[in-house]
Amino acid sequence: MGFDKLAAPLPPATTPHDTCLTRACAASAHLDQCVILPAPDHPYYTARKALIGTAPSRCISGPFSNSLKALASAAHGYDGLLIQLADMPHITREHIAMLMDVFETHQGEAIVRACDSEGRTGHPVLFPSQCFGAFEALNGDIGAHAIIARYPLKQVVLSGDAATFDLDTPAAWQAFCSSAAQT
Length: 183
Prior knowledge:
By secondary structure, this protein is of the alpha/beta class. The protein has six helices and six strands. It has one domain (20-182): Spore Coat Polysaccharide Biosynthesis Protein SpsA, Chain A (Alpha-Beta Complex), CATH 3.90.550.10. Helix 2 links the parallel strand 1 and strand 2 (57-59). Residues 1-151 form the MobA-like NTP transferase domain.
């Protein structure tokens, strides 16, 4: 992208601290958190570390699977692990509460995954503790699709495209900025 999309101020730029990363942390502030940061020698480390303040974090390098393994390891002793991607600015505390309600209703026996209003699967995803060991087998940048396929799944519909809208490309960033400027 040419810039750190997680640490860049989101429009309308009312404060330099309104970023994808700070929104993600705020949405799950009522939970025990572990924020994955790049290694300290990474060019984005300093800005991201400053934005999360005192939130617990782990520095991970390598493919996405390394981050997932670290999170699963940090979650031992908990009933579940919520994977929330920080480049999804529409996810709110209310969305996370919806996932947690379904998780508790099913007594932690199923993976709970957000989907958008058209049924497309997305994030966040809440994994029950019986899945934690399966994270060790993950490799590369493919995420936890193999784990999701092996366990019971409950989907939670989030309004609009909150569960599937992310800022993965310069075009998505520009579209997000343009729509925010019009509101």
